[in-house]
Amino acid sequence: MIENWNECVIIQLPKLDGVQIVWTPGRAATVLSGSWPVDHGVGYSDALSKCTDAMLGTYPWEPTRDAFLEAIADASVTKLH
User: Fold this and answer.
1) pLDDT for 3
2) Which of 14, 29, 49, 57 is deepest in the core (most CB within 10 A)?
3) What HEC string does 6-62 produce?
4) CB 19 within 8 A of CB 56
């Protein structure tokens, strides 16, 4: 079963047109691995690892939102919500 976060994260990435609305760890992992402006750093690595593990069912999905927010801050990604 795919779990949604209680609150979405809306971001704007230079590599993608328009805003990205992220509701799940799976979507966060896809954005991190395919369109993120950096591919290194503690925030990036932690978020990608936790979101991927949550997709596989080996990590709780709820705390992955906080890890994703840390990756946003570390990469200076524009967060709209």
Assistant:
1) 77
2) 29
3) CCCEEEECCCCCCEEEECCHHHHHHHHHHHCCCCCCHHHHHHHHHHHHHHHCCCCCC
4) no
